[in-house]
Amino acid sequence: MNKKGLTLVELLVVMVIFVLVIAAVSQSFIYVLRHQARQVGIAENNINSLVGLNILRKDIEMAGFGLPYVLDNYNEAVDDSKYSPNPTTFNDAPNNPPRPFVSDNGSGPNNSDVLVIKSTVASLNDYVRNWGYLTKYKYIPLNQSDEISDTYFSEIDLNRFRFIGYNKKSSFQYPSGQRIFLAFGISSQQPRMPFNRADYFLYLPSTMPSRCASGTYELYRANINQADGKRNNPQPLLDCILDFQVAFGVYDKNSNKIIWKQVMTDDAAAQRSNLKQVRVFIVQQIGKYDPNFYYDDSTIAVGDDRTGVLNVDHLTEKQRHYRWKTIELVVNPLNLSPKEK
pTM for this structure? Predict the structure, then answer.
């Protein structure tokens, strides 16, 4: 047995090997931690996105539900200099029948769109869960929540789907004879319009999440308040959004095919007859800033083969150190009638 021990050279060699092994293990550990943090961030982002996207999908599917075809002299959104474009841009009041969809192309940040959806259920309160029909002296609910006694209803005569007025359950105006009225829950407040309205738009709040890249926004959803006509308590649905684009698939009788529009200006009757599909595109940041990552392209083309390119987003050098995904939402509205009654 060699009792001399290790020489200085042998000790140095062992130390060098040990340091190299520790460095390799450390690098692997750091890589695993970064990868795990990135995957956790992506998972959290996907979960949060699902909630917001489901709300948007539901609003689009239910657009037009309970909208009267004939009415006049009603109110809608009021002038508000806080937002651009102004919410009044999307009004149909005071005398035009409300359109299920109203939009504006490229007027938001980064040439993003604004989407306005109108229906009796375009609200997150429980009062809109009340609806049914009225026969002589009787209300027959088709759906009902616990707040029915406090609910203001919009009453509609099936003759031309004409708006009659607002009433609570205690003061319903019942039809005579064999006629039938429909009753749609609107709000707990005295309504200013016989429907609810949800506005979707990009907006830069006073405080953005710290992980969001410069030049991104939040996608907001805001209801028009029935009491004062202002955007009521806007709620952020999705964080770190670079772009929000909408396209409408409309049946064209002349060409006998679907054509795609970037802005919905058709009146209510035309939308009920011809609007077949809505496609929404959202460009969202995934994860945090990564100095070791560089996005492949300096631009992101938004759209698909059917809609064509709706917008092109140009990334800054710093934005290219973030990961981006384009969410496409394809929705067929379920509450547009094929023709006017």
Answer: 0.86
